[in-house]
Each structure stands twice: as C-alpha cells, then as structure tokens.
Request: fold
Amino acid sequence: MSLVSEIWTFESQGRLHSFLTTNAGTDRFLAFLTARAIIDSVETVHAYFGDRAEGGSGYEILWKPNIRRPDLEEMFRKL
Reply:
C-alpha cells in the first residue's frame, strides 16, 4: 500500500522540490524514506501545515543537486 497519496514536483532556481501528501507522521515518513533508500537523495524534508505535522499531512522535499526528474520516476514508484 502506498504511503503517499499525491506528489507535486517543481523546479526553482535549478533545484527540484516535491510536495508529498501523506497521512504519516514525521517519524514514520522519514523511516519510510530511509527503508526505501530514498533519503540518500534528499537534502531537506520540511513539514508543511506545521500544526498538523504530528498527525501527518504533507512534506516538502528539496532534492540533492544531482537529482533530476528521470531519477524521481523510480523513487516515486517506491512511495
């Protein structure tokens, strides 16, 4: 079963960012990324809707500079 229900990716200043919507809390979401070896491609993870972060809602991921859109296709299949 997928943990992430929506993904929106955009480029800003030459860097890829993704907004992911999930019902997982921060600890579970980070463990999920780690277990699937996705965390190694992530520079930062920022919870948005901070007042709901503990109950899960959404996360903004800033991908490392070497990550390009084709790289994300395989990672997103794991989510």
